[in-house]
Amino acid sequence: MKTKIIIITILLTNQLMAQSYKKIHDDAISIDTHNDFLTQTMDYGYSLDSNLKGKTHSDLNRFKKGGLDVQFFSVWSDGNQLNPYAFANRQIDSLDAVIKRNPDKIVKVKNTEELLDVVKQHKIAALIGLEGGHQIEDNLDNLNALYNRGTRYMTLTWNNSTNWATSAFDDKFNPDLKGKGLSDFGKQVVKHMNSIGMMVDVSHVSEQTFWDVIATTTKPIIASHSSVYSLCPHQRNLKNDQIIAIAKNGGVIQVNFNSGFIDPTVDERESAFIKKYQGEIDSLKESGINAYKAEEIIYKKHNEESESLRAPFSLVIEHIEYIIKLVGVDYVGIGSDFDGIILTPKQLDDVTTYPLITKALLEKGYTETDLNKILGGNLLRVLKANEENKN
């Protein structure tokens, strides 16, 4: 009899927990600051309003199933892209076309007031994040034009440095790198972003660029898709002093899901996988396919083997908790990098799985108030602060 009572109690507790985390997740304003779906559009012709389950991490209907309210769509190109400003606009065109076809599901917003209004209507609020400052082609007029099209943050560099800011990748791998950090024009870019209400994003930048940003900005900054260096020493992650500096600045760190950025064992294992199939990758590249797409094809071809490289889901929670324990619950959020990464953590298969994060944090003892901040409230605060006192 006692055993039966215990089992019933456990079942009821689990049922209440399930109802609780789902309600908390649905009630919160859930924001992801970094999704690379537009690259999937450019590479494969995928449309966000199609059923793309099994092909991508994201589509419009799955966003809603995952309880997502606000998405920053990344506009990206690598440093070899010809006419990157025009290419950036083509990506925004593709998003605008989806929005025009689906006004009952997704709306582009310009500020927090519009964002909150769209969320109340149970639609997805769409904004743009420009990933890589090379796309403005050293021209502030281009930056203004992209702002007018809905861009609300710019990642100052991608892996490639610009003429005015150095990247974390170059800082680590380019021994001939000169003029580290922000140039005078780079500082002008940061000040201009402050003045128009565009968030400065320090994901991908070198340490010197980071500290130059901290010394230059008058508004809170973001790291749109970065994780914790102390847990996984990758150049894309933030060290403790950087996390503390962002908190003092009033900014926010949006934790990245990429397995290689959260699990320190992945990098070596992934390198071995790439080396094993380098011949196949080279053949694809010789046929005209770019390196990133070639690797993605190989990962899918050798799916069972590549699946074993994925990081445990628990590590995502560890990175979130590390930031909370270091600087508090007001300075962390979610920047998944869905559709820009191949190796998502186990269980986080696509955008329908966001509620698992809410469930795990609730089980850790975080309150509904805490979860509202982590899921989107912290980012909203930073976005609103950047809107204030703009030109």
Tags for this model:
3-stranded parallel sheet; 6-stranded parallel sheet; alpha/beta; 18 helices; 391 residues
Termini separation: 71 Å
What is the string of helix and strand elements? HEHHEHEHEHEHHEHEHEHHHHHHEHH
Main sheet specs = 6 strands, parallel
Number of strands: 9
Shape: globular
- Average pLDDT rating: 94
Structural class: alpha/beta
In helices, the fraction of residues equals 40-55%
What's the alpha carbon Rg, rounded to whole Å? Answer: 21 Å
Binned strand content: 5-15%
Oligomerization:
single chain
Task: Give the number of helices.
Answer: 18
Write a brief structural summary.
With 391 residues, the protein is α/β, with parallel strands linked by helices. 51% of the residues lie in helices and 10% in strands.
Structure commentary:
With 391 residues, the protein is α/β, with parallel strands linked by helices. It is 51% helix and 10% strand. Strands 1, 2, 3, 4, 5 and 6 form a six-stranded parallel sheet that branches. Strands 7-8-9 form a three-stranded parallel sheet. The chain is globular, with a radius of gyration of 21 Å. The termini are far apart. The model is unreliable at 8-16 (pLDDT under 50).
